């Protein structure tokens, strides 16, 4: 199956290299998506540009696809379900949840000179980054791509309620499935509260399992792709 892989803030398509290699070995066709402004295009890229890149990858696939979003890009994966529900077999969300309609995509960090640079490890100390050693952190920082403000502050627009019919999987890295269920039950994640089918999968990692647990993450994705 074609599996689209969309990284979160500061990541380009190469962040998925080891996961993609594992998925190929498991018989799937991984398609890491390098987003405009995050490895391709300029700092003037917008959320609409990133959405268009994801939809182009969906449309280019020969058949139905599974779309995987990580962190903030869970919203991009969910937008794919909103725009192309008939083309998706499943949407997988890793370490994040979809932003609701009308809210900014990822207005979490300071904008400087028109971009959101990687803010350093301070905001991620604790479970998020506990499994990243010094070498992994230095490599992450070296590869981090500042995110255009037009992406981070772009407003999310959801229009097609058929997105709720697309089977969804929430992969839980730095939080547990029990915590995720609690958040959803409390009304903190309204988009997933309305999902017709939502499964939860735990992975013992920090926020970036494609870096620290690529083989395990690939197995989780392959299992999700084989269970429609």
From TrEMBL:
Residues 3-219 form the AB hydrolase-1 domain. InterPro entries: AB_hydrolase_1, AB_hydrolase_fold. One of its GO terms (molecular function) is hydrolase activity. Signal peptide: none annotated. It holds the Pfam family Abhydrolase_6. Keywords: Hydrolase. The keyword Hydrolase applies. Gene3D superfamilies: alpha/beta hydrolase (3.40.50.1820). This is Alpha/beta hydrolase. It comes from Streptomyces edwardsiae.
